Amino acid sequence: MPTLSRDFLSDLDSRDELAPFRDEFHLPQDLIYLDGNSLGAMPLVAKQRILEVVAQEWGEALITSWNKNGWFQMAEKLGDKIARLIGADPGEVMACDATGINLYKLLSMALDMRRDRRVIVMEGSNFPTDNYMAQGLIKQLGRGHRIYFAEKEDILAAITEDVAVVSLTEVHYKTGHLLDMKAITEKAHAVGALVIWDLCHSAGALPVFVNDCHVDFALGCGYKYLNGGPGAPAFIFVAKRHQGRAVQPLTGWWGHAAPFAFEPDYRPADNIRQTLTGTQPILSLAALECGLDIMCRADMAKIREKSMNLCDYFIALVEEHCGGYGFSLVTTRSREERGSQVSFRHKQGFAIMQALIADKVMGDFRAPDIVRFGFTPLYTRYVDVWDAVMRLKNIMENNLWQKPEFNRLTAVT
Amino acid sequence: MPTLSRDFLSDLDSRDELAPFRDEFHLPQDLIYLDGNSLGAMPLVAKQRILEVVAQEWGEALITSWNKNGWFQMAEKLGDKIARLIGADPGEVMACDATGINLYKLLSMALDMRRDRRVIVMEGSNFPTDNYMAQGLIKQLGRGHRIYFAEKEDILAAITEDVAVVSLTEVHYKTGHLLDMKAITEKAHAVGALVIWDLCHSAGALPVFVNDCHVDFALGCGYKYLNGGPGAPAFIFVAKRHQGRAVQPLTGWWGHAAPFAFEPDYRPADNIRQTLTGTQPILSLAALECGLDIMCRADMAKIREKSMNLCDYFIALVEEHCGGYGFSLVTTRSREERGSQVSFRHKQGFAIMQALIADKVMGDFRAPDIVRFGFTPLYTRYVDVWDAVMRLKNIMENNLWQKPEFNRLTAVT
Fold it and tell me: What's the pLDDT score for residue B411?
């Protein structure tokens, strides 16, 4: 670890090949935004592009845009761009619907492909919606499936011959821990199980190699590291070898082999289009494409290297400058074993995060006591790490977090 | 029927209380747009509103917009606006996801509420995606459900005591025929079945009274008569009496009783929020709200009256001026029994529609031989009906549809 100073970090910025990407995003004045893992920043081009889609493609060209402006092809075109970011091939990814819905499709397919098995392995501490989706599906099916909730140390051991599908999130939303996609997928296949990888905190944050790891299915989010805008459509990956061999159950016309033939019976497309259900939200897809086009120009290896540095330096600086104030590191120190975020535990985490936000450092708080900081190498500078920690230090030194306005627990719902 | 002339129709426009709404939409120069039942026209305010959501709410306010700009509440807020248009109460409608997915949720709930029954009644000639969704669900469930496809004359007779759910589209996408929501719902309830009404071609086109008709469930589309933009989120209605009594199976965190408590197990909200799965596409919702805000200011009775007149006059003028050219009316002449569209059958329908579009009258063609014209009273004038028919007459009189460029069958997929 080098000796960290603002000058040292500033020098890194001046030599950072990713630095020019920052100019392609809108970032609020003076804000240090460490929450791009919740909602990515806005690509500047999005304003003009969305206006074009609204005024020209919708307003002026109306329904002719379905063909003329490629609306019908958007889910697939954006899917192919996402494929490049996750190590998939063209024709294996669609940009569509929402993460939970895509997980539901894949879980249902996987259970159908392993009809003699009844167990789903998931991580109990995962962001709950994945687990909720699985609970809803098995209740609906009523065939005696059960979910075995393992934590990361126990996952490999939990993958036994009664397991139908292992459904995990690669990067843990709270701790930032990175699971070993290759080893877990190998183990699953060794016992005849299938895998589904949730890449919500991976896509755009670090290199992902779904095909090198022989992943069966995957899904992920468009609005975090892909900078696709609030509630951007999600994505869904089905390995070519499984396409045409299982049917996702939300069998709308867009997934039909001949959607415009209006045949009386559903006949599944034998390719990635079967993952679609119906009409997609075009305005939101157009915004997502703006984020993807930037990300596809960036070198993912460089993103990963900078991300690991940003996280390392943040941890080191917090421990050096705020070490006496009761923070304990949640995220692993092993840079290879984490995603692009750092979490600390602190009893006063809620108030501290409120004070940080008031001082223009935006991370987020995860109950009961975790402060979480996401690092997005395309628009986060090395000096931002320094400045964020100095503002945190000031808050801790001067007990600013004790102000009453930072201790009002406002319900988010 | 009055004697129709352009002057007569122009005079109606000058006295039309809905006429000022036309100024709130962008309509391409000289185009007579009779396809608002496929994609509604763009409300002018949408440009500014979307730019504000992109640049301010996303770009500048970032994640704080979930609370500060009400993103979390949008699905429900827009749902309440849609409720007013379909005769539902506040808290009974959500704007979310897509029509097929919402139908899937409701079908699954309905089958779960009638576990001892195995039959779904649908209309075989309906827009196929509804039927496909039901086919996918029953295949996935594997419990021996079957779909009985009835056509409109046979629907009431098909509703017998083995029927779990009657799932119908109120206005037929091709013929424009309006089913009797009240009578069918009554019959279904009399035999202990539930009803799901697809309001894709009803909402915003005519008054709908889901609660007066004691409808159980409904869904519909945001991008047709509601003018919500391409692929706008759909809506879902669950009558208050059923809320908390059945669980839709796409059980994501937004449908949890306490979404931010991050409880390990799914616990369904006991209200309309349970219909949600996860994060919604905010940009697309914002555009939808622009359309809804206009529609909510319009008098639905006046919309209906004008819609019936536009359709009546269109039929009369086509028959008067193009009567010798082989058109046969598909839509009923009975204004009370149709939605807001008129279809004719013609052997050369495809080429005729291409010629019309080239002459700036945009309707659409439905294979094998139907030309379909939608009438959207908020921005369609009485004189548009005259002008459209005169252009059609010109095409038929001069055999303009025979030009080779109008006879190239280009695949839409």
Answer: 42
- The answer to the question of residue B412 being in a domain is no
Beta bridge partners of B166: B121, B195
Both A193 and A327 in one domain: the answer is no
DSSP H or E run through A112? helix A99-113
What lies within 8 Å, CB to CB, of B391 at 6+ separation is: B32, B356, B359, B360, B361
N-terminal to C-terminal alpha carbon distance within chain B: 42
Does A35 map to a domain?
Answer: no
Domain contains B399: yes
Strands (E) across A266-368 are located at 328-329, 341-345, 361-362, 364-366
Q: Give phi and psi for A299, each to the nearest 5.
A: -90, 115
Smallest CA-to-CA distance from A247 within A280, A279, A223, A270 is with A270
Task: Report the distance separating Cα A343 and Cα B265, nearest Å.
Answer: 24
CB B196 within 8 A of CB B219: yes
Residue of B nearest to A263 (CA): B128
Instruction: Give the strand pairing for B163-169 and B194-198.
Output: parallel
Task: Spell out the residues 6+ positions from residue A349 whose beta carbon is closer than 8 angstroms to its own.
Answer: A365, A368, A369, A370, A371
* Distance (Å) from the alpha carbon of B42 to chain A's nearest alpha carbon: 5
Of A232, A262, A295, the last residue of a domain is A295
> Which residues of chain A lie closer than 8 angstroms to B101, CB-CB?
97, 101, 250, 252, 277-278
Residues A216 and A349 in one domain: no
pLDDT at site B17: 98
Q: What range defines the domain where residue B279 resides?
A: 48-295
**Cα separation, B333 vs B314, whole angstroms:** 11
Alpha carbon distance B60, A126 (integer Å): 30
Q: Between chains, do A54 and B262 touch, taking CB under 8 Å as contact?
A: no
User: In A, which residues are within 8 Å of B62 by CB distance?
Assistant: 28, 33, 35, 39, 41, 362
Q: Work out how many CB contacts closer than 8 A connect A with B.
A: 276
Question: B41 lies in a domain?
Answer: no
Tens digit of each residue's pLDDT (9 = 90 or more) over B73-118: 999 999 999 999 999 999 999 999 999 999 999 999 999 999 999 9
Chain B residues near residue A127 by CB distance under 8 angstroms:
253, 262
Same domain, A194 and A279: yes
Contact A407, A359 (CB under 8 A): no
Is residue B146 domain-shared with residue B262, that is, in the same domain? yes
CATH number for the domain spanning A312: value is 3.90.1150.10
Domain boundary among B238, B273, B295: B295
Predicted pLDDT at B410: 59
Does the structure show a pLDDT above 80 at A123? yes
- Our answer to whether residue A314 is catalytic in this structure is no
Q: Do A101 and B277 touch (CB under 8 A)?
A: yes
Specify the number of domains making up chain A. Answer: 2
Region B48-56: mean pLDDT is 98
Given A251, A285, A367, which is nearest B136 (Cβ)? Answer: A251
